[in-house]
């Protein structure tokens, strides 16, 4: 007679391999990044819309003045990275739920490429932004730049 193990009996495979549980880490990332993003986004909106003169005051000079401070560069970079990875992870979850086979691999690759490209481009903009580049023609630089 064959006996069946109890449903809650510990399973002991022949070769025990410890693998990273990517779904658990993705789930945990979504929760933690979501909390941090709420703080970053509402802080961003509060400073940009409520402390000044509202949306009508947001122009090139406002952004240039804000990005003159390393604090705001770090704030916006962190918001960019967390939001893009959070969104990419959400898309990965949706693709895993609804796509199968080769289509799944293609879609996951496209999402990964888009997230990486946007992170690289956004980070380059945030870290290399200079509203008054040296040697630029006077008619192409904003009026608040010193004469060169």
Automatic annotation (TrEMBL):
It is found in: Membrane. Its main location: membrane. The keyword Membrane applies. InterPro entries: SQR/QFR_C/D (IPR034804), SuccDH_FuR_B_TM-su (IPR000701). Keywords: Heme, Iron, Membrane, Metal-binding, Transmembrane, Transmembrane helix. The chain crosses the membrane at residues 26-47, 67-85, 105-129. SUPFAM superfamilies: Fumarate reductase respiratory complex transmembrane subunits. This is Succinate dehydrogenase hydrophobic membrane anchor subunit.
């Amino acid at each position: 007679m064959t006996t069946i193990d109890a449903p809650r009996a510990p399973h002991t495979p022949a070769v025990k391999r410890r693998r990273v549980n990517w779904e658990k880490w993705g789930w945990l990332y979504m929760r933690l990044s979501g909390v941090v993003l709420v703080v970053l986004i509402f802080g961003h909106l509060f400073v940009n819309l409520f402390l000044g003169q509202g949306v009508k005051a947001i122009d090139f000079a406002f952004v240039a003045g804000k990005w003159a401070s390393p604090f705001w560069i770090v704030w916006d970079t962190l918001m960019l990275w967390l939001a893009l990875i959070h969104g990419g992870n959400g898309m990965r979850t949706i693709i895993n739920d609804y796509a199968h086979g080769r289509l799944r691999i293609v879609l996951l690759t496209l999402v990964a490429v888009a997230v990486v490209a946007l992170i690289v481009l956004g980070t380059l903009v945030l870290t290399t932004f200079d509203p008054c580049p040296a040697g630029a023609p006077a008619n192409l630089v904003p009026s608040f730049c010193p004469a060169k």
